[in-house]
Design a protein that fits this description.
31% helix, Hypothetical Protein Pfu-838710-001, 6 helices, 195 residues, eight-stranded antiparallel β-barrel, single chain, alpha+beta
């Protein structure tokens, strides 16, 4: 179990930009790994309303539950490794195991028993070390939607932003306002629920 501050910059990409960046960094199919994010909230979006998000990330046979919360700089992530059985109980019944994540959720919302599985977002991801940070290329699939994204994960926000902005400018990729995956997923889910 751990807590850490996540500082990252995001930019939506076109399919052409994604393909260009894959070639720019010499990334072939063998460099891309699959991960699946399983998202949870209450029917009234209690976590979302507090600017928070809960997911279980599945990478192969590893399951990690993460609560993301607003922090003064970036996001505070509380992480906990789950057994396959704990992950299955959460996915099928919304039953979270005891631990640091559940404790953190109880500090955010009171209706934890109403948590339920909302759906999954599958990402094909490649990572590249770049000037002291980590560049991430993502191709994601969720709720009949497909998108492409570039992330740059750093430890120093101001220095990281300079490097990231210059990188996009040099490659002539427009800087686009980009929500994180869970916000994009929730927006789509919310619209589907209203239809």
């Amino acid at each position: 179990m751990s807590k850490n501050i996540e500082i990252e910059f995001k930019n939506m990409l076109t399919q052409e930009e994604f393909t260009f960046l894959s070639g720019y960094f010499n990334l072939g199919p063998e460099h891309f790994k699959e991960q699946v994010n399983h998202y949870f909230d209450t029917p009234s979006f209690s976590l979302k309303d507090k600017g928070s998000a809960l997911r279980i990330r599945e990478k192969g046979d590893i399951f990690e539950m993460t609560l993301k919360q607003p922090a003064k700089q970036g996001l505070l992530e509380t992480n906990q490794i789950l057994t396959p059985l704990q992950a299955e109980n959460a996915l099928s019944a919304g039953k979270l195991p005891e631990g640091e994540v559940k404790t953190a959720i109880l500090e955010v919302i009171s209706d934890i028993e109403d948590l339920q599985y909302f759906g999954s977002l599958k990402t094909i991801r490649a990572e590249v070390e770049y000037k002291g940070g980590l560049l991430v290329l993502d191709h994601s699939y969720y709720l009949n939607t497909e998108d492409y994204e570039l992330e740059y994960e750093v430890t120093n926000e101001s220095e990281g932003y300079k490097i990231y902005s210059k990188f996009l400018e040099e490659l002539k990729i427009p800087l686009r306002s980009t929500d994180n995956k869970i916000k994009r997923f929730y927006a789509k889910k919310y619209n589907l629920l209203r239809e």
